[in-house]
Every structure is written in structure tokens, then in C-alpha cells.
Amino acid sequence: MKIAMLNCLRANEVCAGCACLSAFYQRRAAFARYAGTEVELAAFLRCNGCGRPPEKDAGMLEKLDRLKAEGVETVHFGACTRGKEGGECPTVTALADLLEARGISAVRGTH
Questions:
Q1: Which of 29, 81, 98, 105 has the fewest CB neighbours in a 10 Å radius?
Q2: Are 72 and 43 in contact (CB under 8 A)?
Q3: Is the entire prediction scored with pTM above 0.70?
Q4: What gap in Å lies between CA 64 and CA 94, rounded to an integer?
Q5: Which residue blocks in the chain are alpha helix, DSSP H?
């Protein structure tokens, strides 16, 4: 099984992806579902940014198509994709919809 992780572009300023990767390799938190399963982390990408509808972003659409072509079955959305109040960014919601339209599951959560 192949999975990917998607994190917030703004979080890129302070995030090295350590907590997400640690949770994946230790099969903790949202990755506990893969305990005892062979899983390949095939991609680690960022969203296309706030206020930029992904359905109108040719580069982002190309990335999503590449995930499908690579056989990615599930994309985990990092904790950074939720606001401090717990709400989801509209860009993230749109990305989840675009992934699911391609037959790729969108899971909210990493660590």
C-alpha cells in the first residue's frame, strides 16, 4: 500500500515534518491503522496555499494526478491543516474532495 502526507504551505516556514514522519514510522496516532502492514510513504507534499482554489491550480492538479499515477491510495492531512479553533481550511477541504474524486482516500490526521 502507498500513502502520502499533505501539510500546510504556511507551516512550511516552521515545520520539518519530523512529528508526522515519526508517527508514521512508529505507527502511532493516525498511522496506528497500518500496524503490521507494509506501507510505503510515496510522497510528502504541501497544499497550494490559502485563498488559491486547488481546482484552478494547474500545478496542484498535476500533483494530484501524479499521486494517482504512482498508486497512492491514501493521503493523510497533517495536524497543521486544521486551524487553532479546530476548523478546516477551505483549501484543504477542496483538496480532499479532489483526491476522493480520483479514488484516493483523504484522512484527516497524522500525529
A1: 105
A2: yes
A3: yes
A4: 12
A5: 18-26, 58-69, 90-101
Grid cell in block for residue 61: 492538479
Query: What is the spatial order of strands in the sheet that 40-46 belongs to?
Result: 40-46, 2-7, 72-77, 105-108
Rounded to an integer, what distance in angstroms lies between the CA atom of residue 70 and that of residue 65? 9
The series of mean pLDDT values per 10 residues for the chain, 111 residues long, is 95 91 96 97 94 95 98 95 79 96 96 90
- Domains (ranges, CATH) in the chain? 2-45+63-108 (3.40.50)
The 8-class DSSP code of residue 78 comes to P
CA end-to-end span of the chain, whole Å?
Answer: 20
